[in-house]
Amino acid sequence: MFFDCIDWTRAWYASVLPLATEIGGAPSVDANADVDVVAYAGWRGKINAYAAQAALRNHRQQALRFVTQEELPEGMAYEAYISDTGHIPTRENLHDFFNALVWLNFPMIKMQLNALQSAQIASLGVGKSRGAARDAATIFDENAALLVIRHSDEGAALLDALQNHRWQQAFVEQRHLFGTHCEVWSFGHALMEKLVQPYKAITAHAWPVIVEANYFDLDVHARRAYLDRKVAQQLKGHALTTADYTPLPVLGIPGWWPDQNEEFYADTQVFRPKRLARD
């Protein structure tokens, strides 16, 4: 299959790993499901079966269903189609496979992004330019990483270092804070696709999420559910712009790549200093 090339041991796939391991083979048919999972073979059937079992919905409370790309009407915007029908056109490729996994793992965030994108389409139409808000939502959808920061002095200092591109401070001097005061969850499906063949310059658009100390006592499933609720609430009613993000070279995250020595982080083509604001 096209997804056999994915190395699921990589840290950047931890956010979607539990469900990803269940995808493949023939779907189990639930007679009570509200979608026709029999019509979809293999991984698509598994995804639809899970979506039905979890009663996943779009922002109009329509049941989510992963359909073939051919079902998208000609001339209709992809995001508007999902909003209107709950159907998500899904091709047999890595890009759409990861998109489906993100829908299953973070349904509230994806629902909120789709609501924002479809509202922008309804307001502005589909032109050569998406517009600032839709562009920012698309960047989140495609390339975001959730930068989870503990509400503490140490967490605040680490976030400040990352936002101001003090990479040596964040990734070397404060390396010990990752896991206790900070963690990163991959979200964007294009980001995950790029990381199938990782290279040093891959950079995510990081979305900061401030959490209380007890967050780090939760198991992985509870953390994921918490982030799904919290980030969706952050996005709701927020005037999303590209200024909300901070660049994050993902192979620099402690533990995400071998040989993260001084020379590794000294590469200013990847770990770039922050540009000075123009007068």
Notable features of this structure?
279 residues; alpha/beta; 2 domains; two-stranded parallel ribbon; 11 helices; globular; DUF3025
Explain what you see:
With 279 residues, this protein is of the alpha/beta class. The longest helix is centred in the middle third of the chain and has 18 residues, at 107-124. It is globular, with a radius of gyration of 19 Å. It has helices at 17-20, 42-53, 78-85, 94-105, 107-124, 132-143, 153-163, 167-173, 189-194, 220-235, 262-265; strands spanning 65-67, 87-89, 144-150, 182-186, 203-211, 246-249. It is 39% helix and 11% strand. Helix 3 (78-85) packs across helix 5 (107-124). The protein has 2 domains: 11-136, no CATH class; 138-265, no CATH class. Strands 4-3-5-6 form a 4-stranded mixed beta sheet. It has a two-stranded parallel ribbon with strand order 1-2.
Topology of this protein?
Layout: H1 17-20, H2 42-53, E1 65-67, H3 78-85, E2 87-89, H4 94-105, H5 107-124, H6 132-143, E3 144-150, H7 153-163, H8 167-173, E4 182-186, H9 189-194, E5 203-211, H10 220-235, E6 246-249, H11 262-265
Parallel strand pairs: 1-2, 3-5
Antiparallel strand pairs: 3-4, 5-6
Helix pairs in contact: 3-5, 4-5, 5-6, 5-10
Organism: Undibacterium terreum
InterPro entries: DUF3025
Protein name: DUF3025 domain-containing protein
Helix content: 25-40%
Rounded to an integer, what's the Rg over CA atoms?
19 Å
Number of helices: 11
Task: Flag low-confidence runs.
Answer: 25-40
Q: Can you tell me the overall shape?
A: globular
Order of helices and strands: HHEHEHHHEHHEHEHEH
Pfam families: DUF3025
Organism: Undibacterium terreum
Protein name: DUF3025 domain-containing protein
InterPro entries: DUF3025
